[in-house]
Design a protein that fits this description.
Elements lengths: L1 E10 L2 E14 L11 E2 L1 H12 E5 L2 E10 L6 H16 L6 E6 L9 H25 L6 E9 L1 H14 L2 H4 L5 E7 L16 H5 L1 E8 L20 H4 L9 E5 L1 H7 L9 H4 L5 H12 L10 E3 L5 E3 L2
Helix pairs in contact: 3-4
Length: about 325
């Protein structure tokens, strides 16, 4: 069973590309496209996810992990679910025994919808924290530690940044305790400058997470400033990395050499440099170590130091 937190509206008996109410889905493994028929009650959904998250013991007490996958723009639900399953399979191949769930915001299936997707992303972002992360935080038990993580791709990184920022501006949410362990940004379609230390757009993101990891690839043409759909947009963190001054909890992982060494395995399509992360075992092994949080950022075996002193994914 795959679990999805969907915030799309329903039209003609199917989920649309427009914002709507919150729906909590349990999708059978043999189903490729989620639908309204997969809805279950929120309380039942939270319970099932927590049960699947429990994966072992920590100092004699149950522990587990929930990884929230937040998809990017131009992703229909079939693509979203397929990538959720790839993340889960890649992590499980390394020994991950928790659960991967998706936050399915209303993204269209056309690349021409970039600006509309961005508007819908901002409109629905707060629900990620308000009804997702905070709901799990409220259900934490003293005798069971469940770690919450976020893995966001492309414009999904914008969704996460806006969700954290909006949450701190709402008294009803800000006064409650909530946080995540690892925030993982992949091919982040957000400006590099917005992630600088002291920038108000990302201060909440850093404050409510233990570690932020940014995977970037300079060969990512989707994030190029010359891309016609994104003309005039500032350089993106998923293409050039984090800015020089970031909090000590943030780390860059350069992926250009790893992609260059294996790009022939990903079909060589125009978007391959932007989406290869879902198919690369080395990337998902590194994500697994990051989620586990048991090693220092410099000791993760899938990484090496570059001649510039920063971290790179080993080819």
């Amino acid at each position: 069973m795959d679990y999805v937190f969907c915030v799309r509206s329903i039209r003609n008996g199917a989920f649309s590309d427009e914002p709507g109410a919150s729906h909590f889905l349990a999708v059978p493994g043999n189903v490729a496209n989620p639908g309204p028929q997969h809805r279950i009650a929120k309380t039942a959904w939270l319970k099932k996810v927590l049960e699947e998250a429990e994966s072992g013991l920590d100092n004699g007490m149950p522990r587990g992990d929930i990884v929230f996958y937040v998809h990017g723009f131009n992703n229909d639900q079939t693509t979203m679910l397929a990538r959720q399953r790839k993340i889960r399979a890649g992590l499980e191949a390394q020994g991950f025994a928790g659960v991967v769930v998706s936050f399915d915001w209303p993204s269209a299936s056309s690349a021409l919808n970039y600006l509309e997707d961005r508007t819908d992303a901002k409109q629905t972002a707060l629900k990620l924290v308000d009804e997702g992360i905070r709901s799990f935080a409220a259900l934490q038990r003293p005798d069971c530690r469940i770690n919450l993580h976020i893995l966001a791709h492309s414009m999904g990184c914008y969704v996460v940044r806006e969700a954290f920022d909006d949450a701190d501006d709402r008294p009803g949410i800000a006064r409650h305790s909530w946080s995540v362990s690892q925030v993982i940004l992949v091919a982040a379609d957000i400006s590099q400058g917005s992630l600088a230390a002291g920038n108000p757009k990302s201060s909440s993101l850093y404050r409510h997470s233990v570690r932020l990891t940014n995977y970037y690839n300079p060969l990512d043409n989707v994030l190029s400033v010359s891309n016609v759909k994104r003309v005039g947009v500032a350089p993106r963190a998923g293409r050039i990395g984090l800015p020089p001054l970031v909090p000590g909890t943030a780390v860059n992982v350069y992926c250009g050499a790893c992609y260059e060494a294996h790009k022939g395995e990903y079909g060589g399509g125009i978007n391959a440099a932007h989406t290869w992360y879902f198919d690369d075992p080395r990337v998902l092994e590194d994500v697994w170590h990051t989620v586990r949080g048991h090693l220092d950022r410099h000791e993760i075996p899938t990484r090496a130091l570059t001649d510039k002193g920063n971290l790179a994914l080993r080819p």
